[in-house]
Amino acid sequence: MPFDVEVRGLDLLVLDPEETRGQGCRVPVDLDPADPHRPARLEPAPRPAAAGPSASGDPEILFTFDDGPSPSTTPKVLDILAKYKIHAVFFLVGEMVDSQNKKVPALVARMLREGHVIANHTMHHKDLCRVKQDDTAVSDIDDGRDAIEKLTGMKIGWFRTPYGSRCKRVEDLLAERGLTHFHWDLDPQEWKHNDPKKAFDYVTGSLARSSDRNVLLMHDIKTATVKALPEILDWILAENQRRAESKKRPIRIVQAPLLALEQLPKGLAPWTLDVTARITGVRTALAAVLP
Ligand SMILES: [Zn+2]
Predict the structure, then answer these.
(1) Residue 100, beta-bridge partner list
(2) CB atoms within 10 A of CB 280
(3) 38-39-43-46 Cα dihedral, nearest 10 degrees
(4) Is this structure's pTM higher than 0.90?
(5) CATH number assigned to the domain covering 36-42+52-284
(6) Which of 129, 138, 184, 242 has the fewest beta carbons under 10 Å from its own?
(7) CA 14 – ligand 1 centroid, Å
(8) pLDDT mean values, one per 10 residues, the chain (291 residues)
(9) Catalytic-residue membership of 234
(10) How far is the centre of ligand 1, averaged over its atoms, from the C-alpha of 57 (Å)?
């Protein structure tokens, strides 16, 4: 059965730390140097290859959303993504998933049904480098994963550390679990200023200058995200029209399940796409469970 192979393939969807080396570095959040419990920080912090360089040669963008799900704003984000036919990555917070809100299970089910990838963003969104006990960091990572896996019944393969906070403790805990931190390239800071215009200007200005793959970080719990997202997508469509007329490379939107397929060993990804394309419904099911 082909599906057996696909399911086994899920275990391989772990980003290889070897591939993350030598790709520049990223400034980690500032930690208080006077804090005696502060773990030693890696200097410089390796930049995790969340999505790697542009695979197509075109400037690329992957949409990722953190800190949800929120029954009030996440459905609006999903509506927008559906309208523009975009499949994103949602880094869920365990306590939001585990909340007593009866709308949450259906909301997470909708994410999967509509072909988004869901991932772990810890249980309580703690700064894993600043919590005093290692055990607190351990349980925040594992409890978040367990909450999502319990609700969905699927294996969660991607992880993003809150605040992008990096230190030896985080690196060690992720390495023990075969994970890497899924970082971002573009952070419009809408979670802080809640200004959709500012977010739009930052994202479109960055994309206009870019020739690489960009992982965009936004927050599906913020109204600024709901307002800025369609504006950004309309800008990409218009910009690609302009680029087509001047024969410039278009901005390509990376679909999250296809990014998961890129992580499969060479040969398996084309085979998977080929075999699932021939069986009605399987491709959608596959997109829903990857990684
Ligand atoms: Zn977050």
Answers:
(1) none
(2) 8
(3) -120
(4) no
(5) 3.20.20.370
(6) 242
(7) 21
(8) 26 29 29 40 40 81 97 98 96 94 95 93 97 97 96 90 95 92 93 96 96 94 98 98 96 88 70 65 58 48
(9) no
(10) 30
